[in-house]
Structures are given as C-alpha cells and as structure tokens.
Design brief:
- There is one protein chain.
- This protein starts with a strand and ends with a helix.
- The chain is 20% helix and 30% strand.
- The protein has a 21-stranded parallel beta sheet that branches. A seven-stranded mixed beta sheet has the order 5-4-1-6-10-7-11, with helices on both faces.
- The chain is α/β, with parallel strands linked by helices and 465 residues long.
- Bound molecules: uridine-diphosphate-N-acetylglucosamine (UD1) and magnesium ion.
- The site of magnesium ion (MG) has 2 residues, from loops.
Length: 465
Amino acid sequence: MTKNLEVIILAAGLGTRMKSSTIKILHRAAGRPIVDYVLDLAARLSDTPPVMIIGHQRETVQESVGSRARYAIQEKQLGTGHAVLQAASILESAGLAGKRVLILSADVPLTRPETLQQLIDEHERSKNALTLLTMKLAEPAMYGRIVRGPDGSVTRIVEAKDASADEMMIDEVNAGIYVFNGENLFDNLRNLSNSNAQGEYYLTDLLATLRQSGQRVGAVIAGDPVEALGVNSRADLAAVDTEIQRRVVEKLMKEGVTFRNPSTVVIDSTVTIGNDTVIYPFVTLEGNTRIGHGCVIEPGSHLINVDVADNVHIKTGTVAEDAEIGEGAAVGPYAHLRPGTKLGRDVKIGNFVETKKAVFGAGSKASHLSYIGDAEIGADVNIGAGTITCNYDGVNKHKTVLEDGAFIGSDSQLVAPVRVGRGAYVGAGSTITKDVPPDSLALSRTPQRNIEGWAAKKREERKKK
Ligand code: UD1
Ligand code: MG
C-alpha cells in the first residue's frame, strides 16, 4: 500500500475495434470482466477507491463495478487528457498537494502489482514530476513512441498518428500507465491543446509541459511487454485470456496441482484447486468452481460453479453446473449433473446418467443410463440401469423420494410424486405409481407366460411357404 496515492482508471471509451454491443472493459477474460483485474491492481496499491472515468455504457459499467470505484463522467470522449481532467471535481476538493496520482487504463489488465510498485518507487527515488511505464516492442504498431534526448532522458511522447517516419522507427513505446505528482496536474490538463492529428486532448502532452517548466520526467521499461498489452480487438482479448490462463495454471502448479497438458485446459481465474489433484487435457473449469485435493479430472470435463470435495474422480466427458460433489465420489464417464445436484460421500454416478435437483445420500449409486430429477435419495440406495424418474406431468414437477437402502431394479419408472420406503425393493421393469412401504417388494410388470414349442412351430410354418 502506498500512502497518499490516488488512482484514476480511464474507462470512457467504447472500444469500437471490438465490434461489439458491449463496452470492451466488460468483455471477460478467464471468467472476469477485464476491468476487474485493473480494479484488483488499484486495490492492491491504494486504500482509497480509484476514480473511474466513465462515458459509454456508464450505467452498465457502474452496475458491474459497484462500490469498488468512485465515478467521474466524461460526456464526450475528447482524449485521454480530457478524460483525466474529469476527475478534478472529486480529487481537487480533497486536495492533491503531496499526493501521487497513478493513472491506469481499464483495458490494460495484465500489469503486475510489483511493476507498478517499481514505477512508484522510481518516481520517489528520482524525485520526478512524472514517471511513466514504457516497453520495447518488435512491432510498435499504433502505440505512442517515446522520444529520448541525447542524454537518454525522455523528452516527448509522439502518438503514432502524429509521428514522422523516423519517429515511427522507435521501438520504445508508451504503456499508458503513469505516476504524476498531484500538484498542478489538473491546471496543466486545463492548458492542453488539441492541435494534433486526432483533434484530441492528449494526456501524453503533459510530458513536454512538465519538461518545459524544468521538472523531471522519468520512465521505467517493463521487463515483460505483455504487462502493458491493451485490449483493443478480439485478438488482443484472446491474447490477454491466454496470458491470464497461463498465470492461473502456473500458480496452481506451484500450489501442487498436476496438469497432464497445461496448454489445453481452460480455467477461470475464479477457480480454486487443491494439491495432488490431476487435471487431464481439455478440461474446462468455470465460475466459482472449487476442487478439493487428491481429485482426478479426466479429459473433456466441463464444470461450471461446481463444488468438488476431496478425492473425487470425475471421468471423461462429464458436464456439471451448479452442483456439489461429495468426498470420494465418482462421476462419469459422460454424466450430466444439472443445477441443484448434490452428491454425498462416495456416491457413484455412472455413464449416461443425468441428474437435476437431486440430492444423493452417502454411498448411493446410479451407475448406468438414468434420469434422476427432483429427487431425494437416501444413503446406500442402489438405482439400477435405465431407471427414470417421471417428474413432469406436463404442467408441474413432482418429487421422488427413495429412502435409505432402497433398491431400484433396472429399467424402472418412478412416476412422481412417489416414495420408496427404507430398504424396499422395486422389481426390474416396474412402473411405480404408488408409494412402496419400507422393507417390501413392489412389482408392477405383467407376469411372464412361456408358450412351449411356439418358436419351433413358427419355423416349420415358414419352411412350408
Ligand atoms: C494511448 C496513449 C498512447 C499509448 C497507448 C497505450 C494517449 C494520447 N495515447 O493511446 O501513447 O501508447 O494509450 O495503450 O494517451 N479514454 C477515455 N476517454 C477518452 C479517450 C480515451 O476514457 O476521451 C480511455 C479509453 O477508454 C482507454 C484509455 O483511455 O481505456 C486509452 O485510450 P485509447 O483511445 O485506447 O488510447 P490509445 O490510442 O490506445
Ligand atoms: Mg488503447
């Protein structure tokens, strides 16, 4: 935490190159809107909530960001200098003497807190009026170029659109992240001119203003240029997503998670995984998914907001959403756990089993080809292959209750509302429409009749034709 530090986050632009109806800073990378990563940075560095400059889709942005920021509105996007100036009404009243102002862009989410700390430290050490983050790029593209004087000091930033052919050759560029001294910041912004190629008020012009008034300007070159990568297009968004994923996996590996092929998994930054869990290739883990230790998550599994306890085995191709899986349980291959599924300890859900709003007690099993919906299953219940809860009558959903130790024979239909009592048996192939008392056997199929010699006779008849 740095004392006397105010943070401003620029977020008023729409981001037209995204070709989206959603403002770019609310596009998600690794499960979170990209602005969230910038808000995290601000929170790491200052106790005071940042001032966000908002314009386009401001209600939606405010809804998403909430009380994590204070807000200043920029009605028209007249440039980055004009954007920062909008924070004047909030920050000037509190007084800026002796304070530092850190300026971040809401679309630059990969900067590490250590790098910003380095920027702030350098600012103090060199007694600068402005310290900016720069980077060296093989292809400097449309970034502002850093012009240095013969003594190596930064003299100017020239925007790509205003640059000469020689200036375009400069490989050091402006990352768009700055630490300013609070004194005179807003007065200097009020004096900016917009006589440039874009007719905008450039924040970057303050560099020359400060130099001309005899103040010091310094720069820190980011070791890893990815830290300054801005999201301007879908390609940038994909690059940011990939980098966040890489960091997530790297962190998880440090914490003791094994990845069989780390580059193939998709894991949101919101997901946690315990040590000694093994993640196979092509696994996708999203939202508030939490996985315990000692689990195995096999290929092609897709979990969204799933709570997985310790020592769980999720087999190939399992899809689960808004579900809980208890310790020691095994699920799949190819199981579908829909919202409201809660599996107790050591539950076994086998291949091609679909569950929805179904609570399974410890040790219960549905091993093959079943649909279990709106059901309350006790402990140690055995659900045979092909069992189906008929929970929907076309209008309403009804509940099936299977009490502890019940045994449901294969290919049974349980027509809800219905209850099978403790320890009761349902014979295979039954259609159960009435409650089954505890410890009894329910059978509803028609008794079998054998007609001896029937097939032989049929064959004889066929031969004669
Ligand atoms: C800016 C810098 C450039 C730097 C680059 C780094 C200027 C003049 N140029 O260019 O030197 O290399 O960032 O990414 O500052 N914004 C507003 N209101 C405005 C204009 C912009 O809030 O009126 C916000 C945008 O939403 C964005 C940020 O400021 O979050 C940067 O604006 P952008 O238009 O992307 O600037 P660049 O052209 O990328
Ligand atoms: Mg930009």
